[in-house]
Amino acid sequence: MSFFGLECFTNTEGAELERKLRANDREYNCSFKYAINAIKTSKYNFFTFLPLNLFEQFQRIANAYFLVLLVLQVIPQISSLSWFTTVVPLILVLSVTAAKDATDDINRHRSDNRVNNRKVQVLIDRKLRSEKWMDVQVGDIIKLENNQFVTADLLLLSSSEPLNLVYIETAELDGETNLKVKQALPVTGDLGDDIEQLADFNGEVRCEPPNNRLDRFMGTLAYAGQKYPLDNEKILLRGCTLRNTEWCFGLVLFGGQETKLMQNCGKSTFKRTSIDRLMNVLVLCIFGFLIFMCLILAIGNYIWEINNGSNFTVFLPREDGNSAGFSAFLTFWSYVIILNTVVPISLYVSVEIIRLGNSFYIDWDRKMYYSRSDTPAEAHTTTLNEELGQIKYVFSDKTGTLTQNIMTFNKCSINGKSYGDVYDCTGQRLDISEYKDPADFSFNPLADPRFMFYDHTLVEAVKLENPEVHAFFRLLALCHTVMAEEKKEGELFYQAQSPDEGALVTAARNFGFVFRSRTPDSISVVEMGNQRSYELLAILDFNNVRKRMSVIVRSPEGKLSLYCKGADTIIYEKLHQSCSKLMDVTTEHLNEFAGEGLRTLALAYKDLDEEYFSQWKQRHHEASTTLEDKESKLDELYEEIEKDLLLLGATAIEDKLQDGVPQTIEQLAKADIKIWVLTGDKQETAENIGYSCNLLREEMNEVFIISGHSPEDVRQELRNAQNSMKPNGAVNSLLLPEDMGKSVNLIKDEVADGEYGLVINGHSLAYALESSMELEFLRTACLCKAVICCRVTPLQKAQVVELVKKYKKAVTLAIGDGANDVSMIKAAHIGVGISGQEGMQAVLSSDYSFAQFRFLQRLLLVHGRWSYLRMCKFLRYFFYKNFTFTFVHFWFAFFCGFSAQTVYDEWFITLYNLMYTALPVLGMSLFDQDVNEVWSFQQPELYIPGQLNLYFSKKAFFKCAIHSCYCSLVLFFIPYAALQDTVRDDGKDVVDYQSFALLTQTCLLFAVTIQLGLEMSYWTAVNTFFVLGSLAMYFAVTFTMYSNGMFLIVPSAFPFIGTARNSLNQLNIWLTIILTSILCVLPMVTYRFLLIQLCPTINDKVMFKVRQARATPPPPPRRARIHRTSSRRSGYAFSHAQGYGDLVTSGRFLRRPAISRSSGFPQLGRATTGFSPMGRSAGYSPTGRPQNAKVQDVEATSLQMYRTITDRPL
Question: Number of helices and strands (H, E) in the chain?
């Protein structure tokens, strides 16, 4: 688990221009008031919780409104309702929200404590003491041990490794799980682990102030009268993990929120859904309409008092001084209380319950549970569920999110023959994912038992000593910068700077060419059981221009050879003309590999003349020691010797995608969700993954590459892309002049003439995100079906998300698995964390989390769509039933002298939203679904209405209000007319206020219940019970409260004695109820029928298909593995950084001196490795490596010389 459980905040005090600190001098450093290493993300403590939480809750308009109502209800002159009708639901809402806030803050406290109370050894008073992280201060010297998290940003002083190297894993920072190397200054490295010398160390550091640049550091160290420059290679950043290093000492430079990691954390914001924002607008409109109604009724009371009020003063005498105007004033406030049910407080209670229930569905979903890591899906928030049904843009990390960060050796081409595919007896190629007969490597005692390869013909070729095959794997075993360590004999662990190299060396190992160990001038290999030691004469290192690396070695027989591997386009330029025929066949194989999204390398070699090499080596030595133009001179020498090569073949490595990624992206694209990949990887790697996961496709008209190094270049490239996509509309009103950029609010969606993709580099993106160019970049990107941003920093990821949020009226989702994704996750409307190999920071900062990217389609297309649909249905129905309930009061006012008399019984008013209509609408909001999950996946177009806000909007709200107004007229005037001049069966009069109130409220309850039934698409036993149970509850409560017994107990509280039994036993009453209910629902039924017939929605069309297929619902289609042919070369599998060749040959990479080892290899059992390959072939994962062990020398033994490769006819 990551040590992060925190959010970020920045120092708001005066800006720091330069940092000064002195080692082991707390008094001096404290004078600058630097931040300590403690983290605080909680909002409350025991004493501040209640006042602060209530203050925050009453900042909500609705809560403040209900508090005002409560105050009004305790004033006898204006209150016609008891105070408990408001105070009970208000306390319930406040309590539920407070409990939720308390739980969240308790979790934050626990997270803070977990981080702050971690222990680290700090040098205090000439002794190492175990201190809490929160007590570490700038200027302290601390000791870290293997596999510990780096406590703060440190200057590396010394380490246990040769030349004071340390190995760190930076997954939390940049998402890369490859080990990085840092090296201390020699002057501090001499301190070693001598506590006395470290305690006497008083170096002074002057460096840059806290900032968010992960790739840059500038400063100086003044010590013993000398100044030493400091750069990023000597800094350990918080968020790293120490690997394969026994111990190291570091000087704290930045602590707490001033560390570079914390500076990169995005600002936490309170996330609210678009429905919440719309609700705020609607609630304000409703309040305004409420005041308008109350004004009308107050004016009516004033007029009535003047014209008719004097007629009633005999039995309703006015109090002294009360005029008609004062009566109208009191009536206004009385109707504010009576009509407050247009926005009942139970609405907010119900919304919270619905959101909580839909969150539980996500937590309980077994189909989003990942058994391999025992990881269920989790909803960390309950307030954003319906927003999941409205996503338009998905911003995804690549490494660990789309991919597993595991490289697998899948296929290869050797001397014109392709290996890796499996065929049946009829010659049909089989799907390897379903093939269960892996190759047998038992002939090789040093093979990795977890390596999987299914083409048996390659193993047979190795056993038959095919010279081309042997040379192929010999090259893979020699041409690399991998380090090997052996904890005990036969147990090999490879440390590769890139997972590509690890996969290739592992493949060579299994096919009998085992890289065993290395020194600065030799490489020890076990070839088919025989130990051989090759003299390493030179490494021609990789860089981004060369796109290849070479080694020059001398075999035990004295033969000089150059082995080279790299991008096929580069290698082909260096080949001897005799390889043309082999090159054509290999090119076909490379195209096949590229079509499957595999990463390819071409392999070649040449034998060298001893005399020529001696001359070349002398010139190489001179060039490497020159001070002027060193790089160009070396490049010329490399070009000279790397020519006339002989082609051996090619490798195909899969940067293994997570299961189901291409299908998920395809489904989301059908749902009109645009996916942007924001990654720190280089362009070739990201582009290759884009093709692998179907984000970029061969069928696209064009994929634009934006790689300009100046603002002018970037702007021109963007405009060229716009001209290609919209030849007649590239420049329009949406591309405003620079000085008008701030006036743009939204950019409308546009459709390009075809399908396009966009790939942009980090340095180009920095220019594109400038205010003068951001609109052009956004418009160009939005015209494309897919966008990939490469080499982006964590802050740039957040800036891209913010740009889309700012100018597009769309809901965004960000998904990632590392600390470098946190700012993006926090910036988006919804953040999703993948619990993968890169720690838990993304998960802790996210709103939702799960283990696999493929679960995203279920989260959006099923849970998100259902949640949005349910919430919209709930809101439409809730406003309908409450508007209808309230408007009846309004019509009644014209018949009761505007006296603020309620049309219903007071108990009915209290229980209407709490008991009679609460459970049915909750049942619909928790269980309803238009189609099941199978149809949701088969018809992803069902998701589109949510993006367009078609289910609940201002238009839908006003339709609901008009429908409620009509129903309230029916509910008042039909019973009014039905009871006028009506008598009972026995001739007695049935027309009185109480009977009318009972009939009206019964008609209302039946009308809204039938309307609910029409709204529901999915009836369950629970729904049915809630609906019928609520009606039964109404009659049970009504007959009980209107009974003689209740009246005798509390006469003032139960005045409707005998009304129920005297009214509801009359046939005309029930006929009135039926007539009223039919008239209420008839317009809506007619409207929906005509809509379905004349203008059906996508939901209507799909539900028609469902009804047709209900007897035998179609199974979900099985997706075959996609095999594509491609003219595009896949990204070359060579992702490590420049400079490792120098480290290898200098010896700075190497471990302690080796000891001799026995040569009895045939007696060894099968070896095990420190990484777990997954999938159908070799897997190399750079994470989870054990500590280094002492590596032992391999004594060279005689073996037969490998045969020279000759051209053979194909």
Answer: 40, 34
- According to DSSP, residue 115 is labeled H
Q: Confirm if 194 and 158 have CB atoms less than 8 A apart.
A: no
Residue 550 CA to residue 552 CA, distance in Å, equals 7
- Whether 39 contacts 6, CB under 8 Å: yes
- Which tokens sit at 76? 């006898």
* Cα angle 966, 972, 973; round to 5: 90
Q: What is the DSSP letter of 147?
A: T
- As a dihedral over the C-alpha atoms of residue 165, residue 169, residue 173, residue 175, rounded to 10 degrees, the angle is 140
* Residue 4 identity: F
- Output phi, psi for 836, to 5 deg: -125, -135
Q: 979: number of CA atoms within 13 Å, CB side?
A: 25
Rounded to the nearest 10 degrees, what angle do helices 274-307 and 61-73 cross at?
A: 30
Two tokens, residue 251: 């000087």
Residue set of the binding site for ATP: 397-399, 501, 542, 565, 599, 679-681, 791, 797, 820-821
C-alpha distance from residue 308 to each of 197, 324, 330, 523, 897 (Å): 102, 11, 18, 111, 9
Six token digits for residue 428: 């049909």
How far is residue 874's CA from residue 924's CA, in Å, rounded to a whole number?
A: 7
Report the alpha-carbon angle 631-634-637, nearest 5: 155
* Residues catalogued as catalytic: 397
pLDDT digits (tens, 9 = 90+) for 100-157: 788 878 887 887 788 889 999 999 998 999 999 999 999 999 999 988 999 999 999 9
Residues marked as binding for Mg(2+)? 397, 399, 817, 821
Helix (H) or strand (E) holding 918, with range, is helix 918-927
Contact 478, 563 (CB under 8 A): yes
R_g of the chain, CA atoms, integer Å: 38
> Is 657 in a helix, a strand, or coil?
strand
Distance CA 280, CA 954 (A): 12
Rounded-to-10 torsion of CA 50, 53, 57, 63: 0
Q: 650: closest CA among 891, 457, 935, 414?
A: 414
Please state at what angle helix 865-893 crosses helix 346-364, rounded to 10 degrees: 170
427-466 confidence digits (pLDDT tens): 777 776 656 678 888 888 888 888 888 888 999 999 999 9
Residues annotated within a binding site: 397-399, 501, 542, 565, 599, 679-681, 791, 797, 817, 820-821
Tell me the C-alpha distance between 576 and 1077, whole Å. Answer: 90
